[in-house]
Amino acid sequence: MNKKKKIQKKNLHSFFINKKLLKNKKAQVEIVGLLIIVIMISIILLFALKAMLDKKDSSQNEFIQRSLASSFIGSMLNTNSICTKDTHMDKVLIDCAKYPTMGGSNEFKCDNGMKSCEFASIIIEDMLNKTLKEWKKSYEFKVKAPEGQLIEELNFTNTVGNEINKDSVTTFVQPLSVDTSGYRTMEIILCIGGKCFI
Amino acid sequence: MKKQSQMKIGESMVIIIIFLFLVVFGLVFYVKYKIISIEGSAKENAELIAIQTVQKIQFLPELQCSVEGTVDYNCIDILKLASLSELGDDQNGIYDSMFPETKISVQQIYPPGAHWDVYGDESPFRDEHYFAIPFALFNTTANQYYFGYVEIKVFT
Q1: d(CA B124, CA B121)
Q2: Which of B 8-27 lie inside 8 A of A, CB atoms?
Q3: Using CA atoms, how far apart are residues B78 and A79, in angstroms rounded to an integer?
Q4: Is the peptide bond before B111 cis (omega within 30 degrees of 0)?
Q5: Which residue, among B124, B130, B132, B125, has the nearest Cα to B154 in the 3D structure?
Q6: A84 in reach of chain B (CB within 8 A)
């Protein structure tokens, strides 16, 4: 009887040990599963982070925008205007910058009777519309008289594009002497990619 | 005991479904990211080709303006341009290596004027990358500068 009791006690003891071992193993398996899920989420998060931080090389974009701005201003200033015979656009703008409050001098009048500022504004707007605006490039065009007075301001914002941050705006400034001494200079500013920050 | 086993199977199935969902989500995200980066690099390459083309045009004696031996780099001579655009495919083959997979044309916009197809043909079945840059156009006979732009289409 005593022996039987001993065996029963031993069996009960081993049953409890086995149950404890089984429970431990199950907990380990669950921890491994949890670990796999954590690793997977970490990998996904890392990829998302990389995709978000992966910034396009801006130097190429800046070079393109600078070329566009310098080409536009250079070509525009060189162009023969139909204001008067043999008058280039730079002469029209210089006259406008010399007398900004009057809209240009009274001596300089276009064949159609327009003053230099009005004529320059119409022609430059037409040029910008047929180039940068048509190519859906955001821009801001400004002309400043030697005294800092703003005599021309035109802009276009491409709402579809993603050019809204400060880094993507390229500013090109072309100084232009308004008299022979070279002390009084006007500024032609063209910002491509958005509004100017100057 | 039977109900407990069913519960266990259900639990395992939910875990497998979540696991598969995570794997599929990860794959979709990765593929989309790859497609965007490949498209971006293709666009970047096309832009590079376009910039190279613009710089070649600026230094191309067949197009550039020169007044008394002084070259004006941001300018195209209209007479030279007209002659070059009249060349047939058999004659302008020398530009094939210079402007690969590219179509170049010039548009005069002020005063409104002509359009010249300088080189290359359209490739309707390929991806087209458009790039344009303003240029001064010089009319030698009238001694007048016009405003226009060069448009470059790169096919990839």
Answers
A1: 9
A2: 15, 18-19, 22-23, 25-26
A3: 14
A4: yes
A5: B130
A6: no
CA atoms of B70 and A142, how far apart (whole Å)? 31
Domain chopping of chain B, boundaries: 3-155
Query: How close does chain A come to B90, measured CA to CA in Å?
Result: 32
Element (H, E) at A151: strand A150-156
Distant-in-sequence, close-in-space partners of A131: CB < 8 Å, separation ≥ 6: A72, B109, B132, B134, B149
Handedness of CA A14, A19, A25, A28 (dihedral sign): negative
How far is the alpha carbon of A182 from chain B, nearest alpha carbon, in Å?
23
**Total residues belonging to chain A:** 198
In 3D space, the residue among A130, A120, A81, A143 whose CA is nearest the CA of residue B134 turns out to be: A130
Q: Which residue has the higher pLDDT, B44 or A119?
A: A119
* Cα B66 to the center of its chain, rounded Å: 29
Q: Above 50 in pLDDT, residue A177?
A: yes
Contacts with A64 from chain B: Cβ below 8 Å: 47, 51, 131
> What pTM was computed for the model?
0.77
ipTM of the predicted assembly exceeds 0.85: no
| Average pLDDT score over residue span B87-94 | 73
- CB contacts, 8 Å: A119 with chain B: none
Distance (Å, whole) CA A147 – CA A100: 9
Which residues have CB under 8 Å from A115's CB, separation 6+?
A96, A102, A103, A104, A105, A108, A109
